[in-house]
Design brief:
Elements: H1 4-20, H2 26-39, E1 44-54, E2 57-69, E3 73-78, H3 85-98, E4 102-107, E5 117-121
Parallel strand pairs: 3-4
Antiparallel strand pairs: 1-2, 2-3, 4-5
């Protein structure tokens, strides 16, 4: 069973996808999903830098999380033809570096968002 926060975020993402449909740029979906989170009073950060902690030093590799929800859930948004293992690796990298237990990969280019969604738990 999904935790309540994941359920809420997935519901909002589905709402955005139903309203806009597939085929737009990723930034459109990100902006609209952030609007929905704001309307629900859910705390989030957008395009938050993810640094590498290496031997006690934080290094900037240019990584940015699309959306961090309530400091605990990371969302990686895509608008691609097909989700690949590279997309999985990207989200898992962000989760490990940012010490996030839960992440959701959302491909808004899917006909049905549920078919373009994958939840990860570390």
């Amino acid at each position: 069973m999904l935790e309540p926060l994941s359920n809420t975020v997935i519901g909002l993402a589905i709402s955005v996808h139903k309203q806009l449909g597939p085929g737009l740029l990723e930034s459109v979906y990100e902006t609209c999903l952030c609007h929905e989170l704001l309307e629900m009073g859910i705390n989030f950060h957008r395009q938050l830098p993810i640094k590498i902690e290496y031997k006690g030093v934080f290094l900037d590799a240019g990584y940015r999380a699309d959306i961090i929800v309530e400091e605990s859930l990371i969302l990686e948004l895509k608008t691609v033809e097909k989700i690949t293992s590279l997309h999985h690796a990207q989200l898992l990298t962000y989760m490990k570096l940012g010490k996030f237990r839960t992440g959701i990969l959302l491909n808004f280019n899917s006909e049905l968002l549920k078919d373009g969604m994958k939840r990860f738990v570390l």
